[in-house]
Each structure stands twice: as C-alpha cells, then as structure tokens.
Amino acid sequence: MSESDAADDADAESDSGDDARPGREIWIEKYRPQRLDEVYGHDDTVDRLQSYIEGNDLPHLLFAGPAGVGKTTCATAIAREVYGDDWRGNFLELNASDERGIDVVRDRIKNFARASFGGHDYRIIFLDEADSLTDDAQSALRRTMEQFSDNTRFILSCNYSSKIIDPIQSRCAVFRFSPLSDDAVAEQTRDIAETEGIELTDDGLDALVYAANGDMRRAINSLQAAATTGDVVDEDAVYLITSTARPEEIESMVTAAVEGDFTQARSKLDSLLTDTGMAGGDIIDQIHRSVWDFELSDRQAVRLMERVGDADYRITEGANEQVQLEALLASLALDSEE
What we know:
Layout: H1 3-20, H2 27-30, H3 43-54, E1 60-64, H4 71-83, E2 91-95, H5 102-114, E3 123-128, H6 135-147, E4 152-158, H7 166-169, E5 172-176, H8 182-196, E6 199-200, H9 202-212, H10 216-227, E7 232-233, H11 235-242, H12 247-258, H13 262-274, H14 280-290, H15 298-316, H16 321-335
Parallel strand pairs: 1-4, 1-5, 2-3, 3-4, 6-7
Helix pairs in contact: 3-4, 5-6, 8-9, 8-10, 9-10, 9-11, 10-11, 12-13, 12-14, 12-16, 13-16, 14-15, 15-16
Function: Part of the RFC clamp loader complex which loads the PCNA sliding clamp onto DNA.
InterPro entries: AAA+_ATPase (IPR003593), ATPase_AAA_core (IPR003959), DNA_pol3_clamp-load_cplx_C (IPR008921), DNA_Rep/Repair_Clamp_Loader (IPR050238), P-loop_NTPase (IPR027417), Rep_factor-C_ssu_arc (IPR023748), Rep_factorC_C (IPR013748), RFC_lid (IPR047854)
Family: Belongs to the activator 1 small subunits family. RfcS subfamily.
C-alpha cells in the first residue's frame, strides 16, 4: 500500500469516527421544527397561524419575544407550509441587526417584492431583529408594505415590540412569544436525548431546564455540549458546561448575607466569579429568578429585590461587577443588624 493510500484510509477512518461523535452536527438546526405542528410550547399561537394558512388569508405578522422561543422557527415553518418545496424561492430572510440602513429596505426588499413569480398569490419577506432598524428605515419599510401589499407579506421579528413604530404595528397581526415553559423545554430536550442515544439523568434534565430559563436554543446547545464530555449527561456536567450556579449555591450566598455573615457570603460570591467563571450579570439574573424561592420574609425579599435592581442598573452602566455584587451583599448584611 502506498503512503498516499494509507493516508486516505486514515482520513476515511477519522471522518467516520467524527460522524459517530455527538457534536458533528449543530443540533439546534438538526432538530428545528419543519412544520408549525412540530413547534413546542406555543399551542395557541400555532393554532392561530395555521388558521391563517388554511384560509389562505395570511396578513403581515409581527413576532415579539425573547431569544430562543421559536420566532424564526415559526416564520420558516409558515413558508414551508405555504409554498412546499418551493419555499426557498419565495421566502427572503434578512437580519436587520446586520443591515440596518434605509438602503436595505429600498433595495433588497423592493427588488424581491417586485420580482416575478408563478403559482402563488404572494411572497414572504422575513425581517429578523426588526427592532434594530433605524426610524428612517422603519418609515421606508412602512411605505414598502403599503406599496406591495397585493403580492408580498412581511413577517417581522423583534425582542421588544415597543421599538417598532406604531404605523408598522397597526399593519400587522401581533404575536407575543413568552419564554417557553419548563415542561416544553424538558419535552424537546428529552426527545433529542432519546434520538441521539444519550443517557440523560433526571437531575441532568432538571439542570438543563433551569439553565435554559425558557430558551430552547440554549437548552439544546447545552445538551449537545454536555453530551461531548462523557457518556452520561447529569447535573454536574450541565452546570459545568453552562457555567451556571446551582440554585442552592445562590441561596446559601444570599442567606448568609441576610443573616449578617458578610464574610461567608463574600467567599461564596468569589467562588462563583472565579471558580465557576460566572459573569456578574448572570449572578444578578439568577438571584432575581430565585428570590421568591428563598426562605425569606416578605420584607426581606422586597429589600433584596430593591438592591438587585440597583446593582443590575449600575453593572449595565459599566460599573465593576464584583464591587457592585459585594455592595449588594454588604447592604443585606447591614440590614440584618437593624
């Protein structure tokens, strides 16, 4: 056997080995629902969208909600159901955060809307992160929506509908996507683990759901990352991969501060920032999520929420994360002495 043949055989073995390992494909795309009835956690929204399609009466749509809850998935699923195999030729997807200027609206959108097409009453233009468009671009978009209303339908996606100008909102059917329920996240995560042949423990599933916080994309990415580290995806693997603190670690830190033991609370905070590698904003988010689960009186919980708000604002404005978090814990410890 020649050296080149041996090298080719080695490459082939390497490729086949790569295919067998988790992580060869991006699971958020591999398991993206293709049809509306495959979307998890938004039954009422899916029913309304399907009624539009069945009645051949699709209006302009505005999807508003946080990341990873199914806005883009629903938009592409609508195109697949309306156009079938021809959906790519009749569906234009743009990301407004990359292309924010008025020229995008005037050029790419208008050229697509004007292009000839056969067999369908309209084409669909999906504008993701539309709240990133400037006011001038949104005004141009409004006029374009009017001009091509006979043969084009727009689907706009945004995190905050308040950043979309009123004339556009009034022309759209607005759908508000809330964070996915824990049951919906757990259901799809469990289904993917079974399909991939991954041993997912109950505490591992609970950790994935907790870390995702309603974001399906984060749950699936975390599952894929954890699956590459070993044969079993358990609680330890998930918290390690996601750099998320266990709920009990957050609780013990806050409880120590509320009881006046600032030194212990500061030590736990330092462990989260250095050993776990968490960002200050993530710690703030976890405290906010869990505050009502702590064994605190109503007054203590309210005081904690007030200080969480102050720290979050200062960190957002660029203040030092560790200083602000230590100040939060210090204020709780001082309250205990009153």
